[in-house]
Each structure stands twice: as structure tokens, then as C-alpha cells.
Amino acid sequence: MQLYTKILIGLVAGVVVGTFANWAGLTWLQDLLQMIEPIGTVFIRLIMMIVIPLVVASLILGTASLGDIRKLGRLGGKTVGIYLMTTAVAVIIGLLLSQVVRPGSRIDPTTRDTIAASLADDAAGRMTMAAEKPSVGETLMNMIPTNPFAAAANGELLPLIIFSIIFGAAVSLVAQDRRDTVLSFFNGVNDAVMIVIDWVMKLAPYAVFALVGSVVSTFGLDLLRSLALYCLVVTGGLLLHVTITYMSLVRFVVGMSPIVFMKRILEAPLVGFSTSSSSATLPVTMEVAQEKLGVSRETASFVLPLGATINMDGTALYQAVAVMFIAQIYGVPMGVGEQLTIVLTATLASVGAAGVPSAGIITLILVLQSVGLGAHVQTGIALILGVDRILDMLRTAVNVTGDLTVASIVAKSEGEELVPRPVDHPIAIGSS
Ligand code: ASP
User: Which among 26, 57, 198, 234 could disulfide-bond with 189, CB atoms 3.0 to 4.6 Å apart, if both were Cys?
Assistant: First the structure.
């Protein structure tokens, strides 16, 4: 059985058992699901553990083997350009759908205030986190690390990416014998990392069951009912973005059948869904891109780490819907000017959001403030907080799918042939 089939079974079983435990009010089953949740946490920690060595080794190797600084510029420009464009399209889909369905106009003020009051404390915590977020200027400056080891130690991916690109570009200019020594070292690191990923992924189906089962079993079904239309608009928008935007790009730009594409990449969005973290999914995304899609290591190692930190179409789309929902619910009109502001700020806010669980709801606060919803930020956030985890899972799966779509487009435009290349990782000692 393929690994993605096993993961899918784990996921469906988690949803079914979790929903049943919740719906039937079986506390013992809910407790049991909570008890096995650590299996999921162990899995997340294990893949997070290899993100830093993976990003450093693969980016240094990738950039050094580009061979030409101009190629680096071209690849960088293309990648960031396509990332921003697809994100803007995602926001527009979110806005249009919210205009048509108007999910916020159908909730009565009493329900609104009860939900908002029940999660007020939690929302206040998010406000503090948003207030501590650095400004745009500071964020740009922080992208340049003063100490790459400190950035690695704090799990700050973007500064580490910048360092690895600069270092890799420099390695490509070093005399050949010394360059080979450096590259051979990082090649070894990279192979070892890939072997660890293979090991960790064996745990994935059980981890996915544990993660999804425990989230779903504690989820407030009542809350889901009152916010059903809002959740449906976000989910529908995400589905539209995947099927229309990504699949037409895959069909017409990459020239691959969307079904084949989805089958090949499925493992990555499934892990994204279960972990709610693009960064934690990065090792899986990298492996899928190279082995299942046939994207070269140079392209994958450049496009994907960047994507995991700056490309979040699912997050941007969700933010657009959330802003419109909160505006509708409090009767604040959103004209063309405000909506253009949303396109801009939601795109930037998704770039600024880290690839970790719930990052999107914190940067959402900035989008709300940018369109004059400052007075409703705290209650608005409290209102949607209860269903955020489920939507986070969905938007992360979309974020990861977007990264892989763009990686395929960039690979294709660089003349790469996209055929699966299952890699037998070279295990030299003690292999059987
Ligand atoms: N969890 C999302 C991700 O890692 C970010 C977010 O929307 O909260 O891609």
C-alpha cells in the first residue's frame, strides 16, 4: 500500500472516530484520543527536528550548483513573482465569495455576542501577540541575520534562507578542489536528512490519526453550526482556488494532468492538514517535489523553503473571508477602496505569517486594522477563534499545495522534465 493511502486512512479514521466521540458525547473516547495525541506531537517534533539541517544543506547545495549568480536572480524573481500573484488571486476569490454569500449577514447579534464573549480572554492573548509583532521595516531588516546560528537556534527560517543563499552563491565561486570538499560534506548531510525523513514518515499514518482525532473530538460542533456559513465560504474558496487556479496552472502551464499531479503530491497536503504547519511539512514537501514530481534539487531547494515561509494562499484567502465576515457581522461597509486594501494587506500579512499553527489569525489582526475595523478586532477574533483550528488545517494543506504547484511551474520554465525519480538514498554502512 502506498504511504499516502495509509496516511489518508489515518486521516479519515481520525475524523470519523473524533466526530463520533464528540457527537455521541463519549467522554472516555475523547479522553482516549487525547491520551494518544502525543504520538502526533512526537511526529511533529521529529520532522521539525530536521527542518534546519535540511534547509541549510539543500539551499547551499542548490544555490552552489546553479553555477551562475544571474540564474539565481532570475529564479528568485520568478519564484517570488508567481508566489505573490497566486496569493493575490486567492484573496480575490475570498472577497468575491464573501460578497456573494454574505456569511456575516445571517448571524443574529445575540449569537454573535455569546460566541464572542465565550472566547474573549483567548482573543485578548492574540491581540498581545499581534502587538508584539515587528513592523514591516523591522521584519525586512530582521531577514538579514547577524548570527545564522542564532537564527537556526530560534527556528527563524527566513534569515537562515538568506544566509544559506549567500553562502551557497559564494561556494560556487571557490576554487574547485575546495568547493568539492564543501559540497561533498553538505551532500552527505542532505542524504542523511532524507533518510531521517523516510524513517519519520513511517509514523505518519498513526500520527495523523492521533492529531486529527484529538482535534475533532474536542471541537465544538455547536459552534460549527452557528459559524457554518463562514466555514463553508472559507472551505469553498479554498477548494475553488485549488481546482481553478492551481489545477489550470498545472494543466496549462506545467502540462500535467491535475489528477496525476494531485496523486503524486497528496502526502504533502495530508501532512500539512494534520500538522497545521507549512514549516513542519517542509521536509515532506521537499521529498515529494524531488521524488514524486521530478523537480530538480536546485529548484526544489530554492523554491520550497521560501514558499513554506512566504507563500500562503490559503491563509490569505481565509483572511479575506474573515475580514468580510467580521465587517458584515458588525455592519461596517467594505467598499472598493477597502477591498483593494484587503488584497494588498492580506497578501502581505500572509507573507509575514510564519508557517506554524495559528499564525494566520495573528496577522489577520493587522488586516482588520488596515480597513478601519480596529474597534471590532478583539470581539471579531473571539468570534472566529473557536473554529480556527479546523480552518487552519485546511488552509495549511492549500498553502503546501501552492508551494508544490509553483515549484513545478518554475521547474518547467527552467526546462526540467517532470518525471518521478524515486531516490534510493545511498545508505553505505550497515545497509542490508
Ligand atoms: N498554519 C498555516 C501554515 O503553516 C499558517 C496559518 O494560516 O496560520 O501554513
Answer: 57
396 lines ligand 1 (CB under 6 A): yes
Q: Report the C-alpha gap between 311 and 400 in whole angstroms.
A: 9
Rounded CA-CA distance 334/336 in Å is 7
For residue 42, being part of any structural domain is answered with yes
Alpha-carbon torsion, ordered 293, 296, 302, 308, to 10 deg: 20
Q: What is the per-residue pLDDT across 238-275, written as a single tens digit (0 to 9) for each?
A: 999 999 999 999 999 999 999 999 999 999 999 999 99
- Is residue 395 lining ligand 1, measured as CB closer than 6 Å? yes
CATH of the domain at 99: 1.10.3860.10
The domain in which residue 222 lies consists of 3-413
Quick one: which of 200, 201, 196 has its CA closest to 425?
196
Sort residue 255 into left (φ over 0), alpha (ψ -120 to 50) or beta.
left
Query: How far separated are the first and last CA of the chain, in Å rounded?
Result: 22
| Side chain identity, residue 394 | L
What's the DSSP call for residue 135?
P
Residue 418 lies in a domain: no
CA of 284 to the centre of ligand 1 (A): 16
Q: Which atom of ligand 1 is nearest to the CA of 312?
A: 9
Instruction: Tell me if 303 is assigned to some domain.
Output: yes
Backbone angles phi, psi at 323, to 5 degrees: -65, -45
CA-proximal residue: ligand 1, atom 6 (nearest): 360
Cβ burial, residue 220 (10 Å; 0-12/13-18/19+): middle
Residue 369 grid cell? 486594522
User: How many angstroms separate the Cα of 387 from the Cα of each of 12, 27, 228, 279, 381?
Assistant: 19, 21, 9, 22, 11
Residue 3's pLDDT is 83
pLDDT for the residue numbered 431: 41
Burial of 126 (0-12, 13-18, 19+ CB in 10 A): buried
353 close to ligand 1 (CB < 6 Angstrom): yes
Report which ligand 1 atom has the smallest distance to the Cα of 356: 4
Indicate the number of domains in the chain: 1
- Is 319 within the bounds of a domain? yes
What are the tens digits of pLDDT across the range 87-125? 999 999 999 999 999 988 877 777 777 777 777 777 777
